[in-house]
Amino acid sequence: MYLTYFGANSWLVELGLQRILIDPWLVGSLVFGNLGWLFKGERSQPLASLPDKIDLIILSQGLEDHAHRPTLEQLNRTIPVVASPSAAKVVEQLGYTQVTRLSPGQTFTLANQLEIRALPGAPIGLQVENSYLLKHLDSATTLYYEPHGFPPAELKKYAPVDVVISPVVSLELPLAGAIIKGSKTALQLAQWLEPQVFLPTAAGGDVKYEGLVNSLLRTVGSVDELRSQLALHNLQTQVIDPQPGEPINLELLHRVS
Fold first, then answer.
1. What sign does the dihedral 226-229-231-234 (CA atoms) show?
2. Do residues 152 and 133 touch, judged by C-beta distance below 8 A?
3. 244 within 8 A of 3, measured Cβ to Cβ
4. Residue of 194, 196, 143, 185 lying closest to 22 (CA atoms)
5. What are φ and ψ of residue 171, in 5° steps?
6. Which label site among 12, 20, 152, 167 has the fewest CB atoms less than 10 Å from its CB?
7. pLDDT tens per residue, range 129-166
8. Is the pLDDT of residue 256 over 60?
9. Contact predicate 105/118, CB 8 Å
10. What's the CA gap between 151 and 197, in Å, rounded?
11. For 95-118, what is each residue's pLDDT tens digit?
12. Cβ 205 vs Cβ 228: under 8 Å
């Protein structure tokens, strides 16, 4: 398995023969509702090129930091997409031709090689968005992705999971509370799933943020704090802090069931 982090929530997962883009923000600015004064993200250095030979795009939410329209406009509209219902609306409006809506509990199989299972994710407004469990059917290698730190209790029945991608820090706003809850749930997630590798997401990468919301955000927790918590609880999970754009080659141990 190879994983490449592009900052924010954006990942390229190479599992078996499949290349999967998750929640890609790869070009332009990140702005919510065209309100740059409220919140704006910019990459320090633009990507030299977009990833090629993509077999699937996975979108967990319909918000701009997961279903980023400028990026999706640059990608081939014939690439299959698996998306939450709100994210599916975005890609359908953009003219994508192979869109599969998944609600929690539903699955999609890619090329008879990879099973993608939707599970409950973060509550956004009145709806619950998706998290995903990916399973390579030949090797039984598994990966769990959830970008806001809201793991569902039902996830425990799929343990153990080899790789977890989820936040390790919390981002909190005055009065509103935590919008990302990694510092509160990362240890619990590791206890539930006993992953070999835990990769932080959501708050990393070579990205600069500005705007009113960013000035109010408070960050709680860190990679080192999670490592200390894991050691205290005698968990062998390795926490890898990914460097943007640098592929990580994961040589996973075979688990005996």
1. negative
2. no
3. no
4. 143
5. -115, 120
6. 152
7. 999 999 999 999 999 999 999 999 999 999 999 999 99
8. no
9. yes
10. 16
11. 999 999 999 999 999 999 999 999
12. no
CA distance 96 to 90: 9
Residue 253 has pLDDT above 70, yes or no: no
Residue 255: predicted pLDDT: 60
Q: Looking at residue 256, what DSSP letter applies?
A: P
3-state class of 127 per DSSP? strand
Strands 11-15 and 40-43: unpaired
Which residue, 151, 144, 150, 186, is CA-closest to 168?
186
CA separation for the pair 201, 128 (Å, rounded): 19
Residue 194 token pair: 């006993």
Q: Contact at 8 Å (CB) between 23 and 213?
A: no
CA distances from 68 to 31, 57, 81 (A): 9, 12, 13
Pairing state between β 11-15 and 18-22: antiparallel
At 257, is the pLDDT very low, low, confident or very high (cuts 50, 70, 90)? very low
pLDDT number for residue 226: 97
Residue 184 phi, psi (nearest 5): -90, -20
H or E element, residue 99: strand 99-101
Q: What gap in Å lies between CA 175 and CA 101, rounded to an integer?
A: 34
Mean pLDDT of the chain: 93
> Which one, of 143, 126, 142, 119, lies nearest residue 201 by Cα?
143
Angle between helices 223-232 and 182-193 (to 10 degrees): 40
